[in-house]
Amino acid sequence: MDLNLLVVLQQLLETRHVTRASEMLHMSQPAVSRALQRLRATFDDPLLVRTTQGYDLSARAEELLPRLQKLLAGLTKLIAEPEFNPAEAEDVVRVYGLDLEVACFVSPLIQVLRREAPKMRLEVRTEPRDHFELLERGDVHFCLTGMSPKTAEDQYRRLLVSQTSSVCVMSADHPLADSELTLEDYLTASHGLVSITGHGPGFVDDRLAALGKKRHLALRLSNFMTVPDFCENTDLLFVLPEVVAQRVSLGRGIVLKPVPVELRSSGINFYLYWHERYHRDPMCIWIRQKIMQHLQLQ
């Protein structure tokens, strides 16, 4: 059955008049009359019957009208653009990122939610793992990272939230703390590495390999939060994104030094990623708008 006929049927049953129904539907009267004939054949019922006062509903039409109104109202709601009211929303926003990335960039989001969407909940995951696996499975709405997906990049959208450079982090008592850090000095030192995946060399090792050089790696960590504990009272050097290094060095006996010229890169970008499945979700659209307003390029 042509579903458009149900719209015509509703107007006919509500107005009980072919001409008025045609006016409401912006259709010609003959077209509505033809539709009525098709409807009568479909339901095997006159639907509208003549009386001395005009048309009235048949017994079948009386039974059909409330069900038809409910059905078409449901279809209208189904097709209508979804709305999002943050003040009343009770959605759960799920975000993944490493500890310091979350502390630097995601923690301000809870302030926005408490102020504008007090019934919503923010759930944050920080365990070291493949960032994009969680997005792929739909376990989180957003992922904050300086990494890039290695496969299926067309599945993801992203928003730049920070640009930073790399710095060398060392104890304030380190012999190199009071002088400019040269590549020769850097190579004589021992080093620590924060490795998200837990395997493979870091980007510094790749740069050194291109120069035909190698550093002594004495420690591998899986998160940024413990760097001060291993750095403050040892001779180990770490290379970290500056925005992260500034955060971990607060209140600690740690200094930040520019990395040797030979190891400097064009910069590190941190992005907020989301999967295509959530790109048009009203709640996720609102969250991205808040991030653009309050958190972008902090």
Task: List the defining traits of the structure above.
D-Maltodextrin-Binding Protein, domain 2, 298 residues, five-stranded mixed β-sheet, single chain, Arc Repressor Mutant, subunit A, alpha/beta, 11 helices, 41% helix
Name given to the CATH architecture of the largest domain: 3-Layer(aba) Sandwich
CATH fold type of the largest domain: D-Maltodextrin-Binding Protein, domain 2
Low-confidence stretches: none
Count of helical regions: 11
Order of helices and strands: HHHEEHEHEHEEEHEHEHEHEEH
Round the Cα radius of gyration to an integer and report it.
32 Å
Number of domains: 3
Give the helix/strand layout:
Elements: H1 4-15, H2 18-25, H3 29-43, E1 48-51, E2 54-57, H4 59-79, E3 92-96, H5 99-116, E4 121-125, H6 131-137, E5 142-145, E6 156-164, E7 166-171, H7 183-188, E8 190-194, H8 203-210, E9 216-221, H9 227-231, E10 236-241, H10 242-248, E11 254-258, E12 268-275, H11 282-295
Would you summarize the structure shown here?
This protein has eleven helices and twelve strands. With 298 residues, the protein is an alpha/beta fold. The chain has three domains: 76 residues, Orthogonal Bundle (Arc Repressor Mutant, subunit A), CATH 1.10.10; 99 residues, Periplasmic binding protein-like II (D-Maltodextrin-Binding Protein, domain 2, 3-Layer(aba) Sandwich); 101 residues, D-Maltodextrin-Binding Protein, domain 2, CATH 3.40.190.10.
